[in-house]
Amino acid sequence: MLWSARAGRLGPTKIWAMSTPALDSNSVAATPHAGMPVTSPSREVGRVATVRRGTALLGDYGERLAARYLRDQGFQIVSTKWRCRYGEIDLVAVDRGVLVVCEVKTRRTEVFGHPREAITAVKLARLRRLAAEWLYQQSGSFDEVRIDIVSVLRPAAGPALVEHLRGVG
Predict the structure, then answer these.
(1) Which residue from 30, 22, 143 is spatially nearest to 94, judged by alpha carbons?
(2) Distance of CA 9 to CAs 26, 28, 142, Å?
(3) Domains with residue ranges and CATH for the chain
(4) Which residue from 37, 103, 120, 145 puts its CA 20 to 30 A from 80's CA?
């Protein structure tokens, strides 16, 4: 099922370049890739930081859009970005008495594959462990737990497309 978000409902996501202070070549931040030196520390670290910040903004946008989509489908959002020592659950929701653990994947293009293709068997196993940990830490109980994937494709122009896959793990 695909769902299209009208432009502007969540507001545009803009990625701004970040400036970073100049670093000397011995700085830990100046060598982001396994101790390999960079030729221009201040420029390279700024670029890496900008890319990370940009993907974080895109991921946040996708999670907000996915939460809104699930609410529109009748889900009750219980938690967002729930963290423990084993990792993070993007969205925890309840759908007709069923606990739903949602992994949200957001991409701008399909150059590296569809967002749902980023969910591997290892990631599904981690989500099952995280769901068990979430249940352990909560006071309520659920007879059924389901893992869903919500993929968001946010092209540079046009509306975002949301795809919801139920019961994948």
Answers:
(1) 143
(2) 46, 41, 33
(3) 2-165 (3.40.1350.10)
(4) 120
